[in-house]
Amino acid sequence: NMELLCCEVDPMRRALPDPNLLYDDRVLHNLLTIEERYLPQCSYFKCVQKDIQPFMRRMVATWMLEVCEEQKCEEEVFPLAMNYLDRFLAVVPTRKCHLQLLGTVCMFLASKLKETIPLTAEKLCIYTDNSIKPQELLEWELVVLGKLKWNLAAVTPHDFIEHILRKLPLPKDKLLLIRKHAQTFIALCATDFNFALYPPSMIATGSVGAAICGLQLNDGDRFTDLLAKITNIDVDCLKACQEQIETVLVNSLRQVRRQQQQSNPSKTVDELDQASTPTDVRDIDL
Fold first, then answer.
1. Per the record, GO CC terms (predicted)?
2. 23 falls within a domain
3. Domain boundary at 147, 166, 200, which?
4. Does residue 200 lie within any of the structural domains?
5. Residue that finishes a domain, picked among 147, 172, 187
């Protein structure tokens, strides 16, 4: 009798990491050289946007992250979509009633660039409760492309992760977890406008630092110095960035715990809040 062999296979076909790209420092140098070209031109709430407030950006960003997670998008899709959104808002005064439409278009474009099977216009419109029609989405796609001058291959923090990790003396069995936590920090940063004008290399280095710190794998200041050296960042700037990232995490955990407390009133917020430190990253399914 023939035995049937059942294998679970990842449905996505992925290229293997290319050592020619990862082990050539010219690639890292080129990324560092061009990354600032893709930053928003200004802090647009002060000088461009009259109708849109920072909390509205946070709301649409949180919704976009939920869509990307539910659709199991590649990790780079959400930060790239936020890069498009910020660059557009830095040059085009936009009405708040168009913000979700803009966010949807940005996910549509980022998904085309990074996904093997991109999100469809129809599927994205369903996530807006059909308040947007596919035709409207396609029309705005051309508007956004024009304003971004078709420069879609922006440098994001994800481009630096592997270059940073390979230069650090880390236990091999912890790399997957460090990478996962760093990716979570990058997504958190993308939802917070305070990080919108930071170079991607700074966010990547701070996120890796915060991940290592949270998993208690850091070896004092030696790790911070080494991290700063990899991406040519001032040590004090890196420490400040990492602290900011950890604060965003703590606030995010507090929010989750408050929601938990509303659904479980028997525990006080303080009880639920005690573990709200970056080290407790280990106990949270990020």
1. cytoplasm; endomembrane system; nucleus
2. no
3. 147
4. yes
5. 147
Give the tokens for residue 241.
Answer: 């960035």
Are residues 127 and 197 both part of a single domain? no
- Name the nearest CA neighbour of 131 among 101, 110, 162: 101
Residue with tokens 């990074």: 114
Measured distance CA(232)–CA(222) in Å, rounded: 15
The Cα 254–Cα 249 span in angstroms is: 9
Report, in this order, helix, strand and coil percent for the chain, each rounded to 5.
65, 0, 35
> Three-state secondary structure along 32-80?
HHHHHHHCCCCCHHHHCCCCCCHHHHHHHHHHHHHHHHHCCCCCCHHHH
Residue 231 domain boundaries: 158-283
Q: CA dist 114 to 77, 135, 154, 163, Å?
A: 6, 23, 11, 19
Q: Are residues 121 and 165 in the same domain?
A: no
Write the CATH number for 122: 1.10.472.10
* Domain assignment of residue 113, yes or no: yes
- φ/ψ of 39, rounded to 5, equals -85, 150
| pTM reported for the whole predicted model | 0.83
- pLDDT by residue for the chain (286 residues), tens only, comes to 455 555 555 566 677 778 878 888 888 899 988 888 888 888 888 888 888 888 899 999 999 999 999 998 889 999 999 999 999 999 988 898 999 999 999 999 999 999 888 989 999 999 998 898 999 999 999 999 999 999 899 999 999 999 999 888 888 888 889 899 999 999 999 998 888 888 999 999 989 988 888 777 766 677 888 888 888 888 888 888 888 888 888 888 877 777 777 776 665 545 444 443 444 443 444 4
Kindly tell me the burial class for residue 198, based on how many C-beta atoms sit within 10 Å of its own C-beta (0-12, 13-18, 19 or more): middle
Are both 267 and 199 inside the same structural domain?
yes
CA distance 150 to 155: 14
